[in-house]
Predict the 3D structure of the following.
Amino acid sequence: MPYRPLGRTGLLVSVLGFGASPLGDVFGRIDPSESVAAVHHAIDCGINLFDVSPYYGLTLAESRLGDALEGHRDRVVLATKCGRYGAAEFDFSAKRITEGVEDSLRRLRTDHVDLLQAHDVEFAHADQIVEETLPALRRLQQQGKARFIGITGLSLKNLMAIAKRVEVDTMISYCRYNLMVDDLDLELMPFAQDQGIGIINASPLHMGILTEHGPADWHPASPEVKEAGKRVVALCKARGVDASEMALHFCLQHPHVASTLVGMATREHVDANLKALQVIADPELMVEVQKMIAPVHNRVWASGLVENYG
Ligand code: NAD
């Protein structure tokens, strides 16, 4: 397993990271004992970055990940989030964040996380994130509850606007660098590299669109994007290629992303995703896939406050 520095934090993270949102049943009901086995298997195979949030399954994912990490905490870089607590429940106040982290630590069965991130910051006014949320996170860092702090979200414009005003250690950008959308590199990546901010790229399968199973009902992409994804999966299948493997392989080739987070809850998916590290892509199939995606390339959906779109 290759490891990369996470910005200037000094942490080394596996290029393939474990997204724990499926542990909250967000993509469908999972088998909890299998998810524990998947976490242990991932650790044994060298995956060290685990990302979760109190939002995933309304605390269920944190509790299940905490159970799975019992006795393994010192082998992982553990990242959780704060500020988003439900589909439409946001509270980025210093009070809620400071209280909420105690609940997260209890569920995760640890006294500190390695990374504490303000979750989906485009749902708040940037002034609040800059003046209240991030200073509160720095205080939690000083108290030893988190080793480093970051922000996450869909809007590249918003992530960058915040990071230009206040120092952050890391960012999770999701659905902005994969086979369907790749505008992460236009401005955010060069800025992050210049500032030494660690970039974690999430949702390489476009939150389930680039899988044979397909996206969950809640997926916010347009029908055209979902249809294009479905056609890509069918094309790959007809050529004997696993579309998810190809999509993940594409993301893993990015030279500056510290880690790519894939949502997983089974040993089978852990193994399939490890395989994507080694696969050799078929360049002709890639050209066909890109042609198929072209009409919807870089089409994202609105998320958060209108002032933060972008
Ligand atoms: P994803 O693109 O990783 O897709 C996950 C889906 O793909 C799940 O249904 C999973 O079961 C399935 N899957 C995984 N491996 C597969 C394989 N080999 N074959 C077929 N299907 C496979 O989307 P995601 O889970 O949303 O993103 C990954 C992680 O990134 C999340 O779990 C979370 O930790 C993080 N994330 C963070 C934010 C944020 O902070 N705002 C947003 C999105 C994702």
